[in-house]
What we know:
Elements: E1 2-5, E2 8-11, H1 22-26, E3 29-37, E4 40-41, H2 44-58, H3 66-80, E5 84-92, E6 109-116, E7 126-137, H4 152-163, E8 168-173, E9 178-181, E10 185-190, E11 193-196, H5 207-219, E12 223-225, H6 230-233, E13 238-243, E14 247-254, E15 257-258, H7 263-279
Amino acid sequence: MVVYLNGEFLPEEQAHVSVFDRGFLYGDSLFETMRVCHRRVFRWHQHMERFLRGCEHLGIRCPLPVNELRDVSRKLIEANQLPHALLRLTLSRGVGPRGYSPAGADSPTLVLAMYPAEPLDPTQPTRWRLVTSSFRLPPADGLASHKSGSKLLQVMARREAEAADADEALLVNTQGEVAEGASANLFWTRGPVVYTSPTAVGVLPGVTRAVVLEICATQGIPVKKRLTKVEMLRGSDALFLTNSVQGIIDVESLDGHAFLGSSLVQRLRQAFADAFNKECGVTSATATHPSPATAE
Length: 296
């Protein structure tokens, strides 16, 4: 694979970052993971809006303006020739003096890399077993709104889930309020209503989450943002997760309590696939034979 690193396109085995980089030492960094299909990035602008908010909040200077980042992304996508892929953008504060203070770290590290991905297929939904993590999120945490590289809590929660033979961890904040998955936003349904937690409980405002909320608004599906406890979720018709990698993910079970699925979730999944395919220029013909379309 070809990687972009600080102005150069390099084979991945030649792309090296300093051991003194603050992203490596402290997680002093931001990242975005985006879906690429037929050389187009899904919801580029929304990812960039969140990325730039993070840059401002953390005070990390991005060395390229957004229009140049887009050009770099296009070139990287063309170089790697993957019809279905993930594009990961990582920006760290770079190398600086020893210690927590960011003073003196004024040469940010910018990396763009690609990974192969399976096509999104609404007829074959991903189904995950979910367990409640013992790790707790702080509520009203300003960092929760940004995709910082400081994800040790999520790493440990996922490790805990995998040790319990589950696919994902459900994160609850220190007040016992349901927040999200370790790598995904959470929704639940009761009758015709879709519910999700408000971002104030410690939720990352996910891009796929935003697309689902847009679909609900367009199709007249009522949405309620509500504080809830884990035990209250068990009375739901269905639970589902959203992220940029898998799209909409069915929750098969939560802490051993099974969910049978919902026609409402299937409706949302199909609508999401339709929006994704339209934006990425996917037709019945290009689904089999990708065209050399321009990225974005």
